[in-house]
Amino acid sequence: xxxxxxxxxxxxxxxxxxxxxxxxxxxxFSFVVMGWYRQAPGKxxxxxxxxxxxxxxxxxxxxxxxxxxxxxxxxxxxYLQMNSLKPEDTAVxxxxxxxxxxxxxxxxxxxxxxxxxx
Length: 118
Prior knowledge:
mainly beta
């Protein structure tokens, strides 16, 4: 079993930045495709960024050029650097495998709330 713990969210003004972290209970990032997802109120959870075991990244059009996903295999941590934040980025952010629930991950973490508001 692998547990994931997200952190780093908060309240930020439009145009601001945040860095999210996702820590895993054991080393999986060296062979797992990981993703950052978000879920806004009343909307379905969506994948916003993914990173392969070799470090190749893909982004949703809505965040391309503003968000950067990265990882540190030695620290069992995946990051999401979010710049130029917009109110529509407001959501609870989660990490998981892509597709979700693979490689010993059997649940979603608690997520971290990101609120973009003036």
